[in-house]
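Take a record.
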Amino acid sequence: MRRSKSGRVLVAPLLLLSTLAFAAPSITLSKKIGPPTTQILVSGNGFAPNVGVDIYFDTKDEALVVTNKEGEFHNAKIHVPREAHPGEHWVTALERNNDKGDQEPFVVNTNWSEMGFRPDGARFNPYENVLNPGTVSGIGLKWSYQTGKSVNSSSAVVDGVVYVGSWDTNVYALNASTGARLWSYETGGSVNSSPAVANGVVYVGSQDGKVYALNAGTGALLWSYQTADFVNSSPVVADGVVYVGSFDDNLYALNADNGTLLWIRHTGGWVYSSPTVANGVVYVGSLDDNVYALNASTGAVLWSYATTTFPVYSSPAVANGVVYVGSYDDNLYALNASTGAKLWNYTTNYPIVSSPAVANGVVYVSSSDGSVYALDANTGAKLWSYETGNQIQSSPAVANGVLYVGSDDFKIYALDAHTGVLLWSYETGYPVESSPVVANGVMYVGSFDDNVYAFSLLGAKAQPADRPDFQTLRPDLALQVSSSTATAK
């Protein structure tokens, strides 16, 4: 035992060595929440030096890394399995051949954050893995919430909360599991606009002519922007900018943080259409009979396409370099996204006011003739159609092989997206013009009977994955060591 000149025992170095020798392993995740297929970067320290470490998602061995001489590894890549259901799961890093390791939770979700699912407006949730053509016939009413008036706003569903507007002038935040109201915010007019949620903020328009930004957790007003007429258009948020149309004939680009006007583009008619954004271009329809492509940064017109002499209520969807949009002239148009050149059109013989959905090479659109159509996205050839009992203004949604759509015959339908065969339907008290959304194994839709509805598999409850016991995990001996994961020092 060494002593200092003062006679004191020097124990600090020994304590430090002891701490290093017996440090417990720990890991960190680059993300702690996200949909199936999300890439997670896993880093760890406190492991033995120069040993193999298996990284599991639940019980599946996803990667094998080798620690450096300090017992660390950095940014090992794993992916959330496509089949991982919504709820809490576990990432485990475990030294091979012993039980030394650490675990961190990861929450799987399949949020639907705005009218078109993503800024491109395709209305297709590629992550849904609970409801499918084989299970959707078993869904029933999970809950309903009655607002003060009709609901034709579509919901946004983000991190366990449903956000939706009502003709009673309110924006509501509802618990996605129970339907309990978390908060509401009263605007100065009916809310037909569908909310968009990004970075903890809810963006929505109102017939008082304003665009609102609300705190997603509390409903507190962050800012508002006054236009000159109704805002029935649903906002889209991309790269820190909110794009939204108004009945004052303008499309607005607003700073998402503070509502400052970035640019404004005047059209020749009401902008009822909700804009979509893809590859730095904003696409939107106008009641001046045109579809516009605008530079997302400046608002400069890149091209416009005139649909005969009838207005464009429909919101565009963009996929694989093609813009799909309906018109009141009875047609669905496919336009080259770069030039606006018409590729094809399909005539339903009745006005199209709904917005198309695009998934897996098929474009789906509903018409005022009461039918839903599935068309080949490349050629416009009809693959199938399904007739409801009245006109359809609801926009279809597609998820995991199922198409969902409402009708003015008071019903919401689930159809096989490949064949058009009816899988399930539910009758509300009035027309369903709200466009359905699907998130985390639940379908949400509003009705003119003043209600917001949630449908899920009867008796199903979200169950967290069991936290794996180290002793039960089995390494995949066929895994190759992941390269560039250990950082030498």
About this structure: The chain has two domains: 12-109+464-472, 124-457.
